[in-house]
Known about the structure:
It is a single chain. By secondary structure, the chain is mostly helical. It contains four helices and no strands. It has one domain: 23S rRNA-intervening sequence (de novo design (two linked rop proteins)), CATH 1.20.1440.60. It has helices at residues 3-25, 30-54, 59-85, 91-116. Helix 2 packs antiparallel against helix 3.
Amino acid sequence: MQNAEKDLAERTKRFARRVIRLYVALPREPVAQVLGKQALRAGTSVGANYREADRARSKAEVASKIGDCLKEADETLYWLELISDEQILDTKRLTPLIQEANELVSILVTISKRARGD
């Protein structure tokens, strides 16, 4: 695995851990829990799909798994934005995580385009 790929694998795992900590910090209100579970599911699957992409057997499989990573990262961003918009948690706490989600989406868009040959 190249250094950049290893760094992204570690980065997506750190992102998942941050999303887990966010979920644990959410109020036990029904809306907060629903939005949080959605963010938790999507946010933890980014790294899992990236790990699968790293072990892919073909370029097509790599492109597909990177596409899955991108989809989940963007979905995580959506749920985080809703949590912020609904003021479920302090924006100061969410801003760094939203920024990281945006950065991961940008990185994964680039990787996805390269994997597809665009």
